[in-house]
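Quick one - first record:
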Amino acid sequence: MEKKIFTIDEASKLSVKEVHNLYTNFINPNQSQIFSLLPYGKDNFSHAIGTYMFTDSGKKILDFTGGQGVLGLGHNHPRIINARINFQKENKVEVHKVIFSKYMAALSSSLAALLPDKLNKSFFLNSGAEAVEAAIKVCYKSLNGKNKYILYSDKSYHGKLIGSGSISGSYRIEKNFPKMENCVSFKFNDPDDLEKKIQECQNLGGIYSVIVEPYSASMLESCSDLFIQKLIDLKDKYKFKIICDEVFTGFYKSNYMFYFQKFKKFSPDVLCLSKAIGGGKSSISAVVMDEDVYNNAYNKLSDTFLHTTTYNAFGEESITALEAINIFSEKDFHLKVTNLSKLLSEKLQFLKNKHPDKIESIKGTGILNGIVFKSYLSSLGNIIEKLPLSFINNKSFFLKKLTASAISSELYEKYNILASINDSKNSNHLCVAPALIINENDVNYFFESLEKTLNDGVNTKSLQIIFEFLKSKI
């Protein structure tokens, strides 16, 4: 396909094959080949509403992915759409860096109203990884640059930029890119190892921050009360700053507005948010800082513009996030999420009890759940045996992940359900994490379809093709 400038109308009329070719030529050829072999890679999607997506060929697909955390309110929530349309119709001021923004002002106050007293200062960016980078900077500078080290979990994920990737234990940035200096990992949820690493770093120049995911959305595991209490005690002793990354888990996905609120007398110095705050339509993130941290870092006149971005909370992004917060904050919203979480938990437990030969475990909280399958598909085992050991560190773990992938493909092909697999090297489960607005009938349909899949067996043909492709690339 030749290079050309497309009109919007021409883009909307592209066939699946044409899209594959454009991806191959101008985006990522390997991604194009892998996706095109998967069942959902053979469809063009035309539009979406709520928890459903529709293809050009007329298929109605139940989206059970929750948009990997982005679609807390589903696709094209009517209140979000109306807010954005009205903003556009009235020709509101979108961006200007030398005038006040009433929308960003209102958004910052609204976030502060949801959080503990001193988490009052917000800065808005585009992505979760950028929020993490801003958090690193403010913590470092708040201690006048005198402390050298930041600590992070060995199983964490905070983004793929140089800074955020350097403190993502599951990313292994050093294999491919330069790593930020003075980043030290501790064993996930291990208070003794945390204390040991802090003591070691204290003798080498001191610590400016420890970053944690109070709940890991990739592993579906929580920090323990014991770990958080040890973190609080060590902070009191060594005076470092605590960053909580709730980019994925924020806004009721974990049964709490923010998961750190589960722990008694615990509040971070800096909180990173994104995904659901954008209402499924806006690329926006936030770093919310304790006033003392902010004042120590940026309160001097000379530091006023030391951390800025071009796309700092455009007007339409701000009103989108503001409307999303208003929806999340309604009186009955939390009750609906609590009922949904209970329903998912009951359905998962019932399925596990009914299929102990095929399900190893269920895990999760709130609407963030997963199913780890036993590797009962012999055909997948035969595929793995043909792959070199250097490609897979743990074949048993990978086989369970492959089983989940096969089941995901079957759900799409036979039942028009889109379900996802987490790409973290620490995850091997089928994600059961729908949008917060999903109704009971759709939840029931998902579990009925999944049970039929477990009873009837799985066609692994598409995965076999993919692994033949992988072998050719190793």
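second record:
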Amino acid sequence: MPFAQIFILEGRTEEHKRAAIEKVPQAPVDAVGAPKENVRVWFQDVPKESWGIAGVSAKSLGR
């Protein structure tokens, strides 16, 4: 069973996540022939102060 784990900064809308849940499963279907109904997608929302970019937190960068 293919499992797509997506780490994103907190604050994405339910619509954003729904769109990814609809589109992400196609990649393992195309790449390895996995049945779409076996593909799982999981989001891990990361607090902005816990995400670093070039030595600075995303929160400090205003992301």
